[in-house]
Specification:
- The complex is a heterodimer of chains A (110) and B (120).
- Chain A has no helices and ten strands.
- Chain A is mainly β and 110 residues long.
- In chain A, the strands form two sheets. In chain A, strands 1, 3, 4, 5, 8, 9 and 10 form a seven-stranded mixed sheet that branches. Chain A has a three-stranded antiparallel sheet with strand order 2-7-6, with no helix packed on it.
- In chain A, a hairpin with a 5-residue loop joins strand 8 and strand 9.
- Chain A is globular and about 40 Å long.
- The termini of chain A are far apart.
- The model of chain A has no long low-confidence stretch (mean pLDDT 96).
- Chain B has 120 residues and is mainly beta.
- At the A-B interface, strand 3, strand 4, strand 8 and strand 9 of A face strand 5 of B.
Chain lengths: 110, 120
């Protein structure tokens, strides 16, 4: 099972919007709507921000949104804030009844 | 409130085994599957496997099959993950994370992480 592909890094200035892609296959991202996104800061446990492709987790800012087209899921953060700086990972259920994480994307707020 | 509390950091020698615990509270233990995820230094999150907390069945990522075991104790609402034949590249922070038995399927609560260092 190969990990879905994410860009290693993205950056943006405060107030801008960024999008992180997560490209898998029809056996994971493309085959199921169980795609979720996690925000991970050093020294802390990951925190879910989006689940089921586009549902925002409780308490997560409306600036976070998710979508999917074919085998690629995307996380968009609008109105970037300094506190959004973190690593972001997509995750998907797979046809093997397992889960897989994307390689992760480091978001830098300039 | 929901809590997943993991056992403390460990240092192991190559070839040894490790066993980490994840004690849960604040919810119905068998209403959630439990997963284990790890992060090696400078690397991303890696899914290791899942245990059905009700029946005890397990599914593991291919790369760990043969040297990983997951068990649970329903009387104490605790899950365990044992990894054998440790190598230096098993040095990582290990997390337990729960997923609801019924959809939606995502990791909605995580343990604090356990650092395991494999070094001679």
């Amino acid at each position: 099972q190969s990990a879905p592909t994410q860009p290693a890094s993205v950056s943006g200035s405060p107030g801008q919007s960024i999008t992180i892609s997560c490209t898998g296959t029809s056996n994971d991202v493309g085959g199921y709507n169980y795609v979720s996104w996690y925000q991970h800061r050093p020294g802390t446990a990951p925190k879910v921000v989006i689940y089921d492709v586009s549902s925002r987790s409780l308490g997560v800012s409306s600036r976070f949104s998710g979508s999917k087209s074919g085998n690629t899921a995307s996380l968009t953060i609008s109105g970037l804030q300094a506190e959004d700086e973190a690593d972001y990972y997509c995750s998907s259920y797979t046809s093997s009844s397992t889960f897989v994480f994307g390689g992760g994307t480091k978001l830098t707020v300039l | 409130q929901v809590q997943l509390v993991q056992s403390g950091a460990e240092v192991k020698k190559p070839g040894a085994s490790m066993k980490i615990s994840c004690k849960t509270s604040g919810y119905s233990f068998t209403s959630y599957y439990m997963h284990w995820v790890r992060q090696a230094p400078g690397q991303g999150l890696e899914w290791m496997g899942i245990i059905n907390t009700s029946g005890g069945s397990t599914t593991f990522a291919l790369k760990f099959q043969g040297r990983i075991t997951m068990t649970r104790d329903t009387s104490t609402s605790t899950v365990y993950m044992e990894l054998s034949s440790l190598r230096s590249d098993d040095t990582a922070v290990y997390y337990c994370a729960r997923v609801p038995r019924i959809p939606p399927h995502y990791f909605d609560s995580w343990g604090q992480g356990t650092l395991v260092t494999v070094s001679s």
